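An instance noted here:
***
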Amino acid sequence: MTGTTRSSAGLDARRRRILYRSWHRGTRENDLLMGRFCDALIGELSEADVADFEELIEVEDPDLFAWIASGQPDPKYDTPVFHRFRQFHVSGEGVPEL
């Protein structure tokens, strides 16, 4: 997969911006992690989760990757959306079918 599979049609401006930003944030590895999660769930996140995800998008790539691997984010980012994001990938749900 090289990029988003979700159309931004039907999303408000804030969620469209998040969708774009999640696929264009830094290293390709984290683009894939953030982007796949966003593609799958941006339409159903609560406003509080959207706010938390916006903050998570700004985390430096090495920190974010370490938190995903360890399951122990900085306390500021220890939110339900982080745990949902991590579980999305740890469970294999975020892995595309071939």
